[in-house]
Structure formats: structure tokens, C-alpha cells
Amino acid sequence: xxxxxxxxxxxxxxxxxxxxxxxxxxxxxxxxxxxxxxxxxxxxxxxxxxxxxxxxxxxxxxxxxxxxxxxxxxxxxxxxxxxxxxxxxxxxxxxxxxxxxxxxxxxxxxxxxxxxxxxxxxxxxxxxxxxxxxxxxxxxxxxxxxxxxxxxxxxxxxxxxxxxxxxxxxxxxxxxxxxxxxxxxxxxxxxxxxxxxxxxxxx
Length: 203
Ligand SMILES: C[S@@+](CC[C@H](N)C(=O)[O-])C[C@H]1O[C@@H](n2cnc3c(N)ncnc32)[C@H](O)[C@@H]1O
Prior knowledge:
The chain has one domain: Vaccinia Virus protein VP39 (Rossmann fold, 3-Layer(aba) Sandwich). The model has no long low-confidence stretch (mean pLDDT 95). The chain is globular. Helices cover 32% and strands 22% of the residues. The protein has helices at 20-24, 41-49, 62-74, 87-94, 124-133, 147-158, 178-185, and strands spanning 31-35, 54-59, 80-84, 100-106, 134-144, 163-166, 191-197. The structure holds S-adenosylmethionine.
């Protein structure tokens, strides 16, 4: 199996949508994106279990991405690519419209202090970008231990006519994320929800 020497995507133009067939060495039939993939436990397990699906992991911590890259190379995962970039910027500017079949947003930084809430990932503009880049019936899967943030994201999605709630995505034992394992060990409650873009929504 051909696994390229570098799994990093290096955009040549940061203001234009990525050329996904070039980035993945194939035209992705299904593209799943892990926003804030961290050390990549979920991304690596899911990519190994679904070789026909293309996976993009992105994070703004380059050392974490380097670890994921090494593990993906060792496991010969040809269907993973990694991007060192900010999540909202990537969804807004770099992912082509209608290209993403699933977003995983697991344990996004909660920024608990009120004065820091504006740093949170989820706002109306981010929702617009998610809706634009998802395929019809494409999904957003969210998990967080921060229950206030969870409720505000869920309210935002439930109040948006472009999305409908579906049963939450539950990670398998192999897929549990690094942070999920920590919180489960601490018996912390975890909020999970999933929403699908309605098929009738064009963009
Ligand atoms: C709490 S960790 C969760 C990591 C992983 N999803 C997990 O569940 O184990 C949040 C991760 O998201 C990354 N991150 C936070 N905000 C981000 C942003 N705006 N853009 C890209 N990455 C971000 C952080 O660098 C960190 O690796």
C-alpha cells in the first residue's frame, strides 16, 4: 500500500478551497473531518476501520499532529491527512462546499470564563460554514464534558432549520478519544449529540 512520506497537507493558497483529490491521492468518496484531533486516538482507530473513507485531522498544536503522523505512518494508514490550522478558518475557507460527510468535534476547548466565551468555536458563522461544507445528510458529532457549553451548542444546532437531531454518535472502545478516556475514568458526565444536515438544504 502506498503511504506518502508526509501526511501533512500544505495549502499553496490559504484563501482557496483545498484540492482534495490531490491532497488524498484519490477523489474522496467520503470525507470525515476531526476538528481538534489532539493525539489522534479516535482518528487513527476510525481510519484503520474504514479504509475506503478519507480522514482529515486538524489541530493547532503541531507537536500533537507530529505524533499522529508518526502513528499513522507506522500503521500504514493511507487514508489520513493532517492539517496544522485553526478549525473555524479551515471550515470557512479551506474545505470545499458540500465535501464533508461527517465532522467530529470531540472535547472542544470550553473557555469556561464568561469573558472568554467569544473564543469558543461554536457561533453562528461557524454553523454557516459547517452547513456549507457538509454534504446533504452529512453529520456533526459532538462530545464534551462541559455541560453548559454542551447545552449552548445543542440549542444553537436545534434552533437551526438546516439541521435535524439524530441519535448521538457513540465511540467504540477502540475509538475513544484521549480526553474521553480521562473523563470516563473520572466518572465525569459527558454530553453527546449529533445533527444531520437536512437533505433539502442545498448549501
Ligand atoms: C481538549 S483537546 C481534545 C482533543 C481530542 N479531540 C480528544 O478528544 O482527545 C482540544 C484539542 O483541540 C485543539 N484545538 C482547540 N481549539 C482549536 C481550534 N480553534 N482550531 C484547531 N484546533 C483546536 C487543541 O489544540 C487540542 O488538541
